[in-house]
Amino acid sequence: MNDRIVLEIAGFYIIINFKKSTWYFVSRAFQFEIIRFYKEFIIKNIPNKVDYIIDFIDYEDISVYKKNQKRYINFFELLSERHILTNYRISIFQFQTILYYILADLLRNKGFMIHASAISIDDKAYLFVAPSEGGKSTAIRLLYGQESILADDSIILLKKGTDYYVYQTPFKEKQWWVKKSQKPYSLGAIFFIKKANFFFQKKLTSRLIIKSLLNKQLLTAYMPKKLYYSTLNDFVNLIALFYDLYFNKQKTSFRKFIKNILYK
Fold first, then answer.
1. 175 three-class SS
2. Which domains does the chain possess?
3. Is the overall model pTM greater than 0.90, yes or no?
4. DSSP character for 7?
5. Residue-wise pLDDT tens digits, 54-77
6. Which strand (E) or helix (H) includes residue 204?
7. 96 and 171 in contact (C-beta within 8 Å)?
8. DSSP 8-state class, residue 190
9. Which residues does residue 83 pair with via DSSP β-bridges, in sequence order?
10. Which end of the chain is more exposed for a tag (fewer CB within 10 A), N or C?
């Protein structure tokens, strides 16, 4: 097994170096875990441009911090700009937090991550945005088997030139059948969904309302939200792409409703 793994996520390149460890089986086990969780984002060649480096080392000095009755352990540190040091004692879920941090950092002034479910039709991505328990997962479960499902929890929006593209995150979704890839998708539309006992679609015309709705669903991973406000201001200028969508959970009716909207 190589001592280096390269991840490509939303066009960003992250190199993971596995430094020699006295706990050989632990370092190898962690490499296998990363390969298992992120295999769709692993590339073979080292790119000319590297966006972030993560070094895994044996790290004996794991400090414990006390705040009130809570205890905190530092599981990574920033060595320099875009270079992270961590250790083999963390879990794969803590490693996911590191990736959240890295992506949030890389997306500043370029895009953002957002809580959303998503489908693709003809290489365009259509996003369903709602608060927790608002119907994101319900919407794609109703469409599963009819449309290609991209996400049921989180998605990446990245600006290239004057256009925004949609990428899948490397993070595990709630539904096992969501297949991951590095592929970019053109943005088709964003639907702010609401559960109801009827079907109704309405174009949104207020940039202020759109910005407020999006701001509530930003995934900033420990970064201040204000770092993304300029990007958000630019994004809401795509006002023709935003809709309110009311739906009920009748599968056949919802599929027909979505088909009438998206296959015009």
1. coil
2. 4-106 (no CATH), 111-262 (3.90.228.20)
3. yes
4. E
5. 999 987 666 777 888 888 778 899
6. none
7. yes
8. E
9. 53, 80
10. C
